[in-house]
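Help!! Second protein's tokens look totally different from the first
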Amino acid sequence: MIKKLRFKFILVSMLSILVVLLLTIGSINIYNYANIRNEISTSLNDVLRRGFETGHGPMDPGNPGDRGPEMGRIHYFLISFASDGSVEKSDFSHIFSLTDEEGTEMGNNAYKITATEGNFADYYYKKSPNGESTYVAFIDAKEKLDSFKGFLIPSIVVSSIAYAVLFVLIFISSKIVFRVSEESYRKQKSFITNASHELKTPLTIISTDLEIVEMDHGKSEWTSSIRDQVDRLTKMTNQLVILARLDEGDMSKYPMGEFDISKTVQECAESFIPSFKKAGLELSLSIDEGLMLNGNKYLLEELTLIFMDNALKYTAEKGKAEVTLSKDRHGHLNLAFVNDIEENAEIDKDLLFERFYRSQNTKKEGSGIGLSIAREIINIHKGSVNVSLEDKKIIFLILF
């Protein structure tokens, strides 16, 4: 149990840190990329605005309110296309990474594309009508993109290293944090196990002495009451032992193997038929034959007995309980326990499987740990259980 809690603590912590890192690094890089794209767009607009009228060098410093980035610091070229798609004019004097032919071909491709903006690798373009002509401006953005990548990659590497370091720190600190809880939990489990074993001896003696008293003086309401309480304590003791072993992960007592679960469920459920009849309740069984399961037969018997005992206690007066077992089209075994419930029954589905949980309005006797054991058995067998309330019925659907 403590190991599971520690694992969840580490998992939640690392996921939280991962989300924060992704949001932080992602936001910074997105902002950085947006700025670069904005600079590219501004430069392209500047090239289109200046057209073919300006020669080499930076923009006229006499008009600072009109200018964008200095044209001498960027590599660009400009092509003018006539309405028929032919090249009217071109300027490749500010680009050195392409030949005139390569630039013209790139310009033709951009002119034919419907989109007014785009890119070919590191070359970003923008189209703008100019009278009857169309200007297509290109900028070599490799330097800016390399600058972006130059920050992106190190930020990812540094974040990954930081994440790994944080994982180590959290892993080590979780050991320290959970050490006290683990020791306390271990002592609690040890106490439950030892107390359960110690109770077995006096319960056996009381049961034996009770048989002698009944042989000498006959049965009475007092001896029957004592026997009921002894049986109840014996059952609770056995359940506590099972729960302690399952919590400790001690499966040496419960080896796994393939067995006929149909036969197991059928026999366990049928053993409750007299009790249901005595209580004036109806019990219906619908169990497909020959279904096999790889698991522990004893634990699955205990699982069935727990749900049957639960149905016997909590089925509404003159109500009906059902047990079904079948295999669905996905190959999963569906084991369902259904019973009618009282109209005013208060059932908290989220707490049903909690240890020692008892409904506030129930007057039925019970330890409150049966369903907790059932859940542990289901988890050990890699199964799942779903609880639903429909038409004054409670349905426990177990999938293996």
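Here's the second one for comparison:
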Amino acid sequence: MREIGIDEIIELLKNANKENIYDLDNYVHPADILEAIMDREDIHELLQQLPKELIAEIIEEADEEDQIKILQHFTNKEKSEILNSMSSDDVTDLIDELDEDKKSHLIGLLDKETREDVERLLEYESDTAGGIMTTEFLAIYDDKTIESVLKYIRSETDAETTYYLYVVDREHHLKGVVTLRDIVSNEMTTRIKEIMNPNVISVHYNQDQEEVSHVFEKYGFMLMPVVDDDNHMIGVITVDDILEIMVEETTEDIHRMAGINKEEKVDGSITDSIKSRLPWLIVNLITALLASAVIDLFSDTISKIVALSAVMTIISGMGGNAGTQTLTIIIRGLSLGEIDKENATRILRKEVVVGLATGGVIGVFVAAIAMFYEFNPLFGLVAAVAMILNMLCAAIAGYAVPIVLEKIKVDPALASGVFVTTFTDVLGFFFFLGLATIAMPYL
């Protein structure tokens, strides 16, 4: 099948006859249509001739902020038709981004069934399994035959997916799971209880979305049921939702490690960027004063041996790089649940050994650089020892800081970087300038 470009998509939309609509619906992915129309002023004119179900699919491909922008181009009647064609979890995510007045307005546009689903989903925290699940799934009873189940599948067009069918009892307790392959490869008279797998893995509605993504990653599922405290099945989570969460969590961690709000976007406003970045830069300024104070303590030493000022920045900078390496590994390990009580001490020992080993190697190079400035072996030795000590402390700080922050319920990705950098700067200057002060008679 040939690829249809943006210009051709726009032409199909502008001349939206029956044939063109068929081509758009069958040969163009909604994400490609979204890419073609986004940021255009004539969005309503381009989309108004399309079936509302297709418009809903296009809007579902956008993030919540862009979904709101697109919907603003439609009348209330059109909004109602589009929202009722969208899946309940996507509508919930969209509505959850609005203030109370707009939220009430959009909820009022929903039909009774969709409204009940959305209001139920809004009760859950947005970053939990309940907040990301959809209530549109297929559940069957274990005493049904494959023939009756197939009839049921044909009649249910709103389900998120038919790859898996979950088996429940009359009180809706989760009992097992069957795949579509199980259904089509057995006789029509076979009872579901004979082919279902009772070992079904589920997640609790209150489980954090990041933990849920780990379960998906561990088992490689495409779909997972969500249950309440009494093991009643209340929804399902699909793998496409998990992929979005993984991107969201990764982006959030990257932003926070740089001291940036997770909401900041590359094409955001200047004001938003300043508000996002300035507070953490002020915190960095305060911590930088600590390093400056240490340098001031040894101002007499620096005034007598000018070469110290050139080498000390190398030692603090390399310590900061080493600390960031350890920090990145530890934060990722915490995020993936790879660090626990059983392996915490072993990981610390490993990082200490790595810090000493890398510090030793880098220390040799730093010693050579220091001797280039002063042509004094003792000056090189002082620089090498300071480098080893700072790399060791960088490894310990890179390990300990995120662990401690995790214990006191502070996001390690947000605050670890500035603390580790402060440690390596302050200690790097202190070790180097302190050792130089002690050895000054021989330098």
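Reply: Different proteins will give different token patterns, so don't panic. The mean pLDDT is 86.
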